[in-house]
Amino acid sequence: MATSVSSSLVPLLFFARISGLLAAALVIYWALVFKSSFLPQSTSQEDLVYAVLHPLLMVIGFILISGEAILVHRWLPGSRGFKKSVHLCLQGLALACGIFGIWTKFHGNDGIVANFFSLHSWMGLICISLFGAQLCTKTK
């Protein structure tokens, strides 16, 4: 019975993965074509790389890797404990991508305080904090 359920979910899993990869590809396209939306003033190439890494790592971490961690319970064969440990490892990797993505935003010349004047910044910090707190409660 489990085989028929998992085989009926194959198209849905395929669609979910293709959608996530498409989102990451669109972020890369956006970064390469519309560079001025990341850094309006002309600055160094290094600043542009750090500015592009922030949205890219957030999409890869919180959409692709975290989404795969959610789907792992459906497609991965093995025991429940094995699935839970793979899920935890993927969530940890997603958290690491998120933390590194935030670090890239703080790497600029503006400093840390200059990045906290928008609702986006505060919501992102709250989101990553709650994600990390959730991960800490899973290990117990």
UniProtKB/TrEMBL annotation:
Statement: the UniProt record of this protein carries the keyword tRNA-binding: no
InterPro entries with a match to the protein in the record: CYB561/CYBRD1-like, Cyt_b561/ferric_Rdtase_TM
Pfam families listed in its UniProt record: Cytochrom_B561
Membrane topology: Multi-pass membrane protein
Transmembrane segments: 12-32, 52-76, 88-106, 112-133
GO molecular-function terms, A-Z: metal ion binding; oxidoreductase activity
Main location: membrane
Keywords: Electron transport, Heme, Iron, Membrane, Metal-binding, Transmembrane, Transmembrane helix, Transport
Cofactors named for this entry: heme b
Residue ranges constituting the Cytochrome b561 domain according to the UniProt record: 15-140
Protein name per Swiss-Prot or TrEMBL: Cytochrome b561 domain-containing protein
PROSITE patterns to which the protein is assigned, alphabetical: CYTOCHROME_B561
Cellular component terms per the entry's GO annotation: membrane
Protein location: Membrane
